[in-house]
Design brief:
By secondary structure, this protein is of the alpha+beta class. Helix content is 53%, strand content 19%. It has four domains: 4-108, no CATH class; 129-223, Beta-Lactamase (2-Layer Sandwich), CATH 3.30.450; 227-301, Signal transduction histidine kinase, dimerisation/phosphotransfer (DHp) domain (Helix Hairpins); 303-461, Histidine kinase-like ATPase, C-terminal domain (Heat Shock Protein 90). It contains 13 helices and twelve strands.
Length: 461
């Protein structure tokens, strides 16, 4: 196909040449005057030049408009609507180019929209991840990080790109690990600790990251703080259980061997030895029983006997059990205001929790001391059960740990007054199982106050 634009120029040139020849032929036939011998010829040439300029302007104007349109289309390639197809005039090369460019623009825009959607999806996935994600280039400068990493390092502002890795996480092990990944292109693992508001442990999985500018590395930081804490709790629990069971077992074995070695005939001591064995067996049974209760409370299975509980009846039942012990220790039980209120839960477990609180208040009290019990509805509409004593109190450094398994503030006194070291742990689990809270306030040598808050039965449904 011949060029339509070229044909226009050739046609216009031919017309101009033909017109010039015809005009020149007639111009030279006109006799020249004395004053202006070439006036006719000049007039002819001026007319030809004016005609040429006019024709050139007429031919170039649509071309200029078309070129400007193509320029605007090229500059705003991604903003061209998908349905736009230029002028739909393919009679010349510029029209065909405009149509082709419009089609390419539609394809490019579709491709870019897909890339933007895919990028948005990846950004959303990375932003919602609980694990920290960190990407670095070959110079170990940060090129990407998500919100989880920002929270992990405890930064006060977002992590800027091109930040040096060591300026963000001062761990040479992580630096060496990522540098090794960049150099070898192989996956690596690393463990590190980051101290922000508190010390946190992480396991890092690092792998190579290919980029247009070269090789980089991407690392995912898994927070293992809670896992390590639970593992330590498990180890402490096993150690504490072993320790607590060793003492009564040693007593049982020791005194049983003594009896077998001839002490059965010792009328002065054999009964006392049997009483010690019996007491140690009771202690072992208490530990096993409390462990079973604790295991049940920590399970997610809802108790079948759950229902409405009259708190006053629970408190009176618990006080009746410890009344004799309080009298033996010279501790006075004082019933303050006890309102008729109801909560939802398991009566046996709530009674056990209140009993443990009152029993502890008696055990760790002083002769002539007091234990006060109060049950009211507080300003927020919750049932508030308060057990306060005038006993030895709890040091402030021990308050955060008193609900831990087997934790004792005064180990010597605790073993002297008895108990398994699981009482307050059971109390906490019982109250939390009933959607309640427990708080403690204490001052050394001035006593302690435990406050339990539970939803009213009407609010609990």
């Amino acid at each position: 196909m011949k060029s339509s634009i070229l044909r226009r120029f050739v046609l216009v040139t031919q017309v101009l040449v033909l017109f010039t020849l015809v005009a020149s032929f007639y111009a030279f036939r006109i006799p020249a005057s004395k004053d202006s011998p070439g006036a006719a010829a000049v007039l002819v040439w001026l007319s030809c030049a004016t005609l040429a300029l006019g024709l050139a302007w007429l031919v170039s104007l649509p071309l200029m408009l078309r070129v400007r349109r193509l320029k605007r289309m090229a500059e705003g390639l991604l903003d061209v609507p998908l349905h736009q197809n230029g002028t739909q005039d393919a009679s010349n090369e510029l029209g065909a180019l405009e149509i082709s460019l419009s089609g390419v623009a539609a394809q490019v825009r579709t491709l870019v929209d897909r890339l933007r959607l895919e990028s948005a999806r990846r950004e959303a996935i990375l932003a919602s991840m609980a694990e920290g994600v960190l990407a670095v280039d070959s110079d170990l400068r940060i090129i990407f990080s998500n919100d989880a990493l920002f929270r992990s390092v405890g930064g006060s502002r977002k992590i800027a790109e091109n930040t040096r890795l060591l300026a963000l996480i001062r761990d040479t092990g992580l630096f060496d690990t990522l540098r090794d990944v960049v150099r070898t292109g192989e996956n690596r693992k690393h463990r590190l600790k980051i101290i922000s508001d508190r010390e946190r442990s992480f396991e890092v999985q690092a792998g190579p990251l290919e980029m247009p500018s070269g090789s980089g590395a991407i690392a995912i930081l898994y927070d293992t703080t809670d896992i390590e804490r639970l593992e330590q709790v498990r180890k402490d629990f096993v150690a504490n259980v072993s320790h607590e069971m060793r003492t009564p077992l040693a007593g049982i074995i020791g005194y049983a061997e003594t009896l077998l070695d001839g002490a059965l005939e010792d009328e002065q001591n054999n009964r006392r030895f049997v009483q010690i064995i019996h007491s140690s067996a009771i202690r072992l049974n208490s530990i096993a029983s409390d462990l079973l209760v604790l295991s049940e409370l920590e399970s997610k299975v809802e108790p079948r006997e759950s229902g409405r509980i009259a708190v006053r009846d629970v408190v009176e039942s618990a006080l009746a059990i410890v009344e004799k012990e309080a009298e033996m220790r010279g501790v006075k039980l004082i019933r303050e205001e006890i309102q008729e209120l109801q909560v939802v839960g398991t009566r046996l477990r709530l009674e056990q929790a209140v009993l443990n609180l009152v029993a502890n208040a008696i055990k760790f009290n002083l002769p002539g001391g007091e234990v006060r019990i109060r049950v009211v509805q507080d300003a927020a509409g919750y049932v508030s059960i308060t057990v306060s004593d005038t006993g030895v109190g709890i040091p402030s450094q021990d308050l955060p740990r008193i609900f831990e398994r087997f934790y004792r503030v005064d180990k010597g006194r605790s073993r002297q007054v008895g108990g398994t070291g699981l009482g307050l742990t059971i109390v906490k689990h019982v109250i939390e199982r009933m959607n309640g809270t427990i708080e403690v306030q204490s001052q050394l040598r001035y006593g302690s106050t435990f406050t339990v808050r539970l939803p009213l039965a009407t609010n609990a449904g």
